[in-house]
Amino acid sequence: MELQTVDADSECPECFESVRLEAVMQHEIVQCAGCGIDLEVIELDPVSLELAPEEEEDWGE
After folding, report:
1. Which CATH number fits domain 6-51: 2.30.29.30, 2.20.28.160, 3.30.310.50, 3.40.1190.20?
2. Tens of pLDDT, residues 32-53
C-alpha cells in the first residue's frame, strides 16, 4: 500500500491565514506560520485542517 502525499494550500481554522502544505500525509501535524498553532491534516482530497489534539503531560505514571 503506497502512502499518499499532497501539495496544496489550505486555510488555518484558527486565524484564517493561508497555509502552504508540501508533501503532507493524512494525520500529519503542521504549523500555521500566521498564528503558530499546530494543525492536523484530516483529509487530503480535498485538503482539510483541524486543530491538532493537545498532548497530555506524561508524569511517568
Report:
1. 2.20.28.160
2. 999 999 999 999 999 999 999 9
* 12's grid cell: 488555518
Domain boundaries, the chain: 6-51
Radius of gyration of the chain (CA): 13
* Beta bridge partner(s), residue 50: 40
Helix (H, G, I), strand (E, B) or coil at 7: strand
Strand 38-44 to 29-31 pairing: antiparallel
Residue owning grid cell 503542521: 30
Distance CA 30, CA 36 (A): 9
